[in-house]
Amino acid sequence: MVESFVGTWKMVSSENFDDYMKAIGVGFTTRQVGNRTKPNLLVSVDSEGNVCLKSQSTFKTTEVKFKLNEPFDETTADDRKTKTVVTLENGKLVQKQSWDGKETSIEREITDGKLITRCVMGEVVAVRTYVKEA
Ligand code: DKA
């Protein structure tokens, strides 16, 4: 259920994110900022099933609103214009972004009360861990 993701999450660790950003084509300057930034992720869902993922940081705040399984247009923090669809697969919230013939996925799951985010581009995987804010 998407409800288990609802709340405010604070990033506490990030592994291999520079390689992931390189793999999706993020330039040097934005990667420098991306590597230093510790975003908060706000997840909410309304009574009609509209899900909102808001990533807040000193670098940039981005927000997407969508219904599960329904494709939508997304502008990412690094300014890619993607066709995105989010699905729920065995408890994992899977955000697939397609642009310029490429595809990446951002997979989120709750493990031991933490929100684990895996950013996958081909063989390259970054793992970012978020904990719930009190
Ligand atoms: C996350 O939610 C991962 C978000 C992936 C963003 C990719 C582009 C970042 C460019 C600074 O932690």
From TrEMBL:
GO terms for molecular function: retinal binding; retinol binding. It comes from the Eukaryota. PROSITE patterns: FABP. Pfam families: Lipocalin (PF00061). Residues 7-24 form the Cytosolic fatty-acid binding proteins domain. Belongs to the calycin superfamily. Fatty-acid binding protein (FABP) family. PANTHER family: FATTY ACID BINDING PROTEIN. Cytosolic CRABPs may regulate the access of retinoic acid to the nuclear retinoic acid receptors. This is Cellular retinoic acid-binding protein 1.
